[in-house]
Amino acid sequence: MKQHSRPHDDKSNHQKSTDRKGSFLDRFKPKPKAPTELQATDTLTRELDKISRGISRIVAITGHSGCGITSTTINVASEASKRGLNVLIVDMDIEYRSTNMYFSSFHERTKRDEDINASLIRTLARPQDYLTTAFHLKENLWLAGLGYSFSDPKLIQQFYTSSKLVGLLSLLRNKFNLILLDLPLNLLDRFREALIHIDSFGLCIPNNLYAVLSTLRNVEETLNKENTAYLNAKSKVIVTKYNDRSRFQGEIFVPDKVSAVATSGLLESFTYGMKVAGHISYDTDFDTQIETDVPLVYSNKDHERAYGNILLRLLEGSS
Fold it and tell me: What span, in angstroms and rounded, lies between the C-alpha atoms of 114 and 128?
């Protein structure tokens, strides 16, 4: 019977094909460069990337009721989240609870989950359990607020306090890059012990004289002189519902002029010059963001840029 011969293993030929040295000229060829990380080209992105690394900031968005506090809070938080920051929204306005209108997922959950319906109270009571007490909106964005149907006066009296808010801010400061408080002016006295734990305030003021006077009247009725001066020193003005036709003393009522009038001595202890964080032009999109459940920063490039600049100024801290 004929046997099949085994293939001959020619190791030398194999080595010739695999161990062949490069030519002399190869030594002079440039080495391939390692791929470089893409860098942001627009100024806003570069500045935000630079300032937001490892940041931990507590910011309160405030102003008199109806001037756009919640809309500003939601859009600044959404812009921060979109840029990779871990964000917690704390809706302290238990009278209106407007965050329910902007986040339908939260609102729907509150109707069938009593724990989430009481999210704000539970988070104030046990901030260390925020992973279960706060509502996870998406990825790096969380919300602690109350559902419309929550009504327990005893729990509110026990946990909706300045000392509990101080505890929450102290414990969660290092868990988030940004904690944003929806905190209207009329609540500042109730939570006055927490004011020193807030790094900066975004003071919302529309550009009309009535809004400026209403803001100052709210401050005067709510805070003593010491806390008024503190709010003044820590605030940056956000001109909400900006109307480019509004005029003051015959001239266009521009954002810098709004800040200048507010600190012109109309209110004692509120005369420290405040920088302007930015302005938001009013248009019909303010209503559609509630109807569509999509914040303005996701649907409009101009608003995205405007809220991005406001975020940058607020992250820079007090002036």
Answer: 19
